[in-house]
Write a structure and sequence with these properties.
globular, 20 strands, homodimer, 482 residues, 34% helix, 20% strand, 5-stranded antiparallel β-sheet
Chain lengths: 482, 482
């Protein structure tokens, strides 16, 4: 645990918080708190002193104001599916969970919007509006569990980002409880609203501006039809070349995903889709749109893949096969459990044309550390997700994962890419931010942060290497999961 | 002129500026400056003391640093096609024009990006990449003249915003010369970059954060095919209902534009497309995508329009007819010159479902002021553009335009809409901002502005009603064009 003993909360604050949410929505027992000590990034852990489960923006604002009065920091938490430790409490004794703020408040079919609370599960939104022929487009792999509030904090992507864009492209406005407890609505009905785009700068701020409690989401029509193709390659480089060639032909697939041999092996063992076990790489390519145009476009994609060396191209025969293919892809991380006791997913970006090069570099770096690596990623976006396999009981492997992760991201930046495509900085990549940003850039960001949270109370010690001037930030303890 | 006499620049600054850009790139004669005293918003005018035409980011940064040393404010100017007075110099003696920074620096076909200088004309970008099957999607009606830098300042839209989004959705990064002369690059290769989205908050900042000198643009594939339909209605309300019905059927047109009777009359007189002169409203509906799917979708649109009372639906027969139709639409403002000596274009937004209501309200408000009004607008976005006709020699009419403009925007806000869809606040709507934002919201924005420009030197006295605390801002003089 991270120095929490030294900053225990005053008893009077417990009383105030209990009065706000009720005893049934305040967790403080050791057993109760255990599940809140990490998110999907399990290399570091830290437990809050109390978890609150408010039911309204009013309650959230009251909690935040109480924390302000007592000079206590707080951290928001959605479903805990994040992959960079964004909701890890570091010197923030109060955790505010959104699991009880899970209502879809209104659906406006004519204007294609939905107003939701932050704790609504991503997939629930699309389920609620499907009958109207609409969907909420951003679809992170964790969409059966992750929440809209968490998606907004991390500006989440997903397989369909390639065509539809990320979270910020689908959130018209957010209700933000600022770090001082003021409630503001940022954004509006128009893409280009008056004044500065404070909506946009809040999305992806990882909870450091305050807590998003509600949002107005843009809905888009469900495509009339899909075609989902599986292309099988004997060489990863051929698969990468096919990705470039598809894009180069002016096709905009809805999704363009790649899995390498090790990933295919794990996924096939788990879900029995019928992936060939001897392939070096597969591409999952989905196009959507009007029924009439898809058949010919699918043929063009098949032709491109075969020209680039695909030994087999299969089209999902029906919706059931499509669903199984996507299940295999989206639960790929889960299947990795079959390969090793532990794994760490990295998240980096390279220009699309650099995908073959970064894949070779990843293999080399993993080999240097004596680690196995599986790759499943958004190839069309250049958004890589190497999964480093390890055993947490082996200290050498744990260290190797940390070294390899850093080297992979350094390679991404060297290729003109970036440190994260969709998972955020959290605690995981704080040390790496200076790879991409100079001191002046970081200072500009810190100053923006202080506009929203001058006292650095909302999700402190995230994103920036040492964001409290004059306060020594202890390096989060690098250790394996308990 | 706005109090410029009182703040003449020191002679030594002239010398420094001349040394930076050379005498041939410094304009200061009365005749030379005359064309710089307004943009497309001609109700207010103000002349800079000097116009500089730098050729590089280095020169821009040097100009800005010189202005800082002399405590002199500056204002950027693209092509001057803006419609809210965004580049009107108010107590900013130095104008920095971007007409000589007009190079496309690089086109990366594989990654679908272009790096351009701020002064590149919008349409030039698409022209340069068309051979690769690519385009730059945002297409303001002024695209043959307006510049990328101006588009970024205003976060410009255009007819194809409905499908493709506005400028911010197509700019991956910007190079910003901050108000203190520091050069920073904001944004990167990924939609969801690490840290805060300072790229996003800079786009639409109307030059108040500093000066954008370069940008990396996202390119998208040219559609394989288009279908462009003209639907003719005897009643505006039927046309509005058709807009809602098309969207309601899950169709996402690339563009969905409306022109009312007066607008059609002016456009037909100017461009002879063959619009029926007795129609109450026409819709221009464009769909794009794969060739195969378009015919059936066009049929669906035609069916919807006829169900809603269209008396005629025509499909553009070929590319020439499509081009003429779009020329008629995009040059509609020019055609208005035939109707009255002067006109003022408003820019507001309502939820799409409120289009019929706002059109009725606009008619009532204009009638109250004894003014004629023509409407041409992005109906699919709910982004209205009523054009108020007047004669600047008639003081009563000028006052009526100002009153009507304000009332129309108040009505937009009352319907759940917004003060501007794409033209910005500039000087035109500073007084109206409090209709939409409370004091706390405005203070938040002011504080963000001060992060980038603590001394309020870059394009001062814009957006915010009185953005220099302690400085009395003279109300811009409301008067007709000279």
């Amino acid at each position: 645990m991270l120095g929490l003993g030294a900053m225990s909360m005053p008893a009077s604050l417990f009383d105030e918080l209990t009065a706000i949410v009720g005893a049934g929505a305040l967790l403080r027992g050791d057993e109760e708190l255990r599940v809140y000590d990490c998110d999907g990034y399990t290399l570091e852990r830290s437990r809050p002193e109390v978890v609150l489960l408010p039911r309204s923006t009013r309650e959230v604002a009251a909690i935040v104001r109480a924390c302000n009065r007592h000079d206590v920091c707080f951290v928001p938490r959605g479903a805990g599916t994040g992959l960079s430790g964004g909701c890890l409490p570091i010197r923030a004794p109060v955790m505010i969970g959104f699991s009880r703020m899970n209502r879809v408040l209104a659906v406006d079919v004519a204007n294609r919007t939905a107003r939701v609370e932050a704790g609504v599960v991503n997939r629930e939104v699309s389920a609620r509006v499907a009958a109207h022929g609409l969907q909420y487009a951003p679809d992170p792999s964790s969409q059966p569990a992750c929440t809209i509030g968490g998606n907004i904090a991390e500006n989440s992507g997903g397989p369909h980002t390639l065509k539809y864009g990320v979270t910020t492209n689908h959130v018209l406005s957010v209700q933000l409880v600022r770090a001082d407890g003021e409630v503001v609505e940022l954004g509006g009905v128009a893409d280009d609203g008056p004044g500065y785009d404070l909506r946009g700068v809040s999305i992806g701020a990882e909870g450091t501006f305050g807590l998003v409690t509600e949002a107005t989401l843009r809905l888009v029509p469900l495509p009339e039809a899909y075609r989902t193709l599986l292309a099988v390659f004997d060489r990863v480089d051929d698969a990468s070349a096919a990705v470039s060639a598809i894009i180069g032909r002016g096709i905009v697939p809805a999704a363009l995903e790649m899995m390498d041999a090790l990933m295919v092996e794990a996924v096939e063992a788990a879900y029995h889709f019928g992936f060939p076990k001897d392939a070096d790489a597969v591409l999952i390519i989905e196009i959507d749109g009007l029924h009439a145009g898809l058949a010919r476009q699918a043929e063009r994609i098949e032709t491109v893949c075969r020209e680039r060396g695909a030994r087999e191209v299969r089209v999902a025969a029906d919706e059931a096969e499509r669903a199984l293919l996507w299940k295999s892809r989206k639960r790929a991380f889960g299947a990795v459990g079959r390969l090793a006791p532990n794994y760490c997913t990295q998240d980096g970006v390279v220009p699309r044309s650099k995908v073959p090069e970064i894949l070779r570099t990843i293999r080399t770096i993993a080999a240097e550390q004596g680690l196995r690596v599986a790759n499943v990623f958004h190839a069309g976006d250049g958004n890589i997700h190497p999964i480093l396999l390890y055993d947490e009981r082996d200290r050498r492997e744990v260290d190797g994962v940390l070294v390899a992760g850093r080297k992979i991201l350094e390679a991404c930046v060297a290729l003109g890419g970036s440190l994260t495509g969709e998972h955020g900085i959290g605690v995981e990549k704080m040390d790496l931010l200076p790879l991409l940003f100079g001191a002046a850039d970081l200072e500009l960001m810190r100053r923006v942060r202080r506009v929203f949270d001058p006292d650095l109370r909302s999700n402190p010690h995230k994103i920036f290497p040492a964001d409290s001037a004059g306060i020594e930030v202890r390096e989060p303890q690098r250790r394996a999961a308990l």
